[in-house]
Design a protein that fits this description.
10 helices; single chain
């Protein structure tokens, strides 16, 4: 590594990540304990749905691909891809192509949602300062990440392999020996992107973004829901009501009482 480490580097890359983690964990637990009813996206679909039907899927599917790309790029060491015969050139070309497509889709979806929120009077009235701050941080993080990737591909800041700097630093955080020097060696564009990303995560538990921590994956595995009416209704000929344990027991008790009276 060629980067020099100073007090600011030590704070940004050795201390601030753990402050961010503490805020994310602590803030999420606090939000869950004190504001479960507010743990939602506060959907505005009822106010306007035409543009949202296009913008929302583009953003969510795009950001999912971006997230997967970050996990692969930051978590999987360069030595692993080298060991299975994936050249560095092939890796970066694929990451650049797929990442660019995902980033464009994410930004188009995000800008469309912001445009919708600004131009629809009812949606705009439902927008809080908290939402505005979240949109600024989220947009900045995605745009700056795209800029850093573009600068890196075009070598505008010189030749730099983030898998030997940013990725090494990121993995070192998990065994509590932050490689500050590795991150200090990264380019300025990556520095700015990571700082804004950490600020975004500090805001995360206190905004509508918190709903991402409770994605309804259990919907896939939950059983069917059986609905029953509270009162007795006449059913059309040819159809039999779907009985539940409660309704069957209730009917049995009714028959028993009638038999007793007779």
């Amino acid at each position: 590594m060629t980067g020099t480490v100073n007090a600011l580097d030590f704070f940004l890359w050795g201390i601030f990540p753990y402050i961010t983690l503490a805020i994310v964990v602590g803030g999420t637990l606090w939000r869950y304990k004190t504001d479960q009813f507010g743990w939602t996206t506060r959907s505005s679909q009822m106010y306007e749905s035409k543009l949202l039907r296009i913008a929302s899927p583009m953003f969510h599917y795009g950001i999912l691909v971006v997230l997967v790309g970050h996990i692969v790029g930051l978590v999987i060491p360069k030595s692993w891809t080298d060991a299975v015969g994936i050249s560095e050139h092939f890796y970066h070309i694929n990451a650049l192509v797929l990442g660019s497509i995902a980033a464009v889709a994410t930004l188009i979806g995000l800008f469309a949602m912001i445009y919708r929120r600004r131009t629809s009077a009812t949606v705009f009235r439902a927008t809080t300062w908290n939402d505005k701050m979240m949109y600024v941080a989220l947009t900045s993080a995605i745009v700056l990440g795209s800029v850093a990737t573009l600068f890196n591909a075009m070598e505008i800041e010189g030749h730099h392999n983030y898998r030997e700097t940013v990725s090494v630093w990121f993995r070192s955080l998990f065994y509590f020996q932050p490689n500050v020097e590795a991150m200090a060696s990264a380019t300025t564009s990556f520095h700015i992107h990571v700082i804004v990303a950490m600020i975004l995560f500090c805001l995360w538990p206190f905004t509508r973004l918190v709903h991402a921590f409770t994605a309804p994956l259990h919907y896939i595995f939950r059983p069917y829901i059986v609905y029953r009416s509270r009162g007795k209704r006449n059913h059309a000929r040819g159809w039999s009501p779907v009985g539940t344990a409660d309704s069957v027991n209730k009917d049995a008790r009714t028959v028993e009482r009638q038999h007793h009276h007779h």
